[in-house]
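Researcher: Quick sanity check before group meeting.
Model: Go ahead. Protein one:
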Amino acid sequence: MAQKMAITLNVNGTGHDILVEPRKTLSDALRGDCGLTGTNVGCEHGVCGACTVLLDGVPVRSCLMFAVQAQGGELRTVEGLAAAPANGGKLHALQQAFIDNHALQCGFCTSGFLMLAAGTLEQQPDIDDASLREVLSSNLCRCTGYQNILRAVRQVRDAGNGGAR
């Protein structure tokens, strides 16, 4: 067994001091060591996108990264999308749009889509439809048929509040 390393993951503005083996994936550390189970693990090969989180504002597949690689970066998970209860506990615009547009069914892929969309809209608030469709096609959903997901993300993009927190 490899010796564990002490690292600090800054997730949603909170530091998590954890001990991990160097080979532990970021998704496993988020779920098991930080208690943030909103990041789902699907294929464990970076194909499905269910594990997508933001690292320094960029969407990454957390199943393809080691936790030690994320040390020193700013991580944001689906738990970090909604505003703090002190601010009224409002949902992020994307979360509300997913509800309004019935963009989820079983919900397994939802956190990955939300984080992918949040990172994309924060980086490219005026992304065109073709590019948006291409970005969203990188995540897999077995239930919705994608149209409602696309509709929800477009709604947020068109309202100009893609970076709303």
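Researcher: Fine. The other one?
Model: Protein two, sequence then structure:
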Amino acid sequence: MKTPGVTVRPIYLMDGSNEVNETWFDNVKVPAENLIGEENMGWTYAKFLLAHERSGIAGVARSKRAIERIKQIANSEMSYGKPLIQDPAFQRKIAEVELELRALEYTELRTLAKDSSGKGPGPETSLLKIKGTDIQQGLTELAMEAVGYYSNPHLGSTLSNEFVGPDYAANVAGTYFNFRKASIYGGSNEIQRGIISKMVLGL
């Protein structure tokens, strides 16, 4: 990373942190002793690694935990005198995301089975990445809906750490904003749709 021509520029998030960066390569020359694998095969290796990264980004287990947390919140939050979890419209939203997550899990299992047989990951990892991050972002929106007005938890400055409301609402808004980046890292979802159209649909 200290090679001349490599520049890392932080991308600051709304809370002032920089979990993500942009990296620029300007006429970077890599010494021969730093060569990994065959010369001119770098992009081939990178695509292989990105496919595995995208499978991991799908985050099925993480989304399952998020659904359970939302259900716990909805059991505590009230809507028209009853727990929100009993609201038919909210139940439908939970059911819809659970069905999408189940389908994603089966796709992930098929991908893992293919990989374990020695075939390696293919363009289906782009689908995992798109649907996985769509579900993750949808779950943060559902959590915001579940906590209602507590989803705007800051007092005074938007960067204040003074939260209002129950403990389970403390970081719901922060998670919502943080997960906006999920559809960008590992290759943006727009890029993944291009891969699918070319490699799967042949367009």
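Researcher: One line on it for the slide.
Model: The first helix runs from residue 42 to 57.
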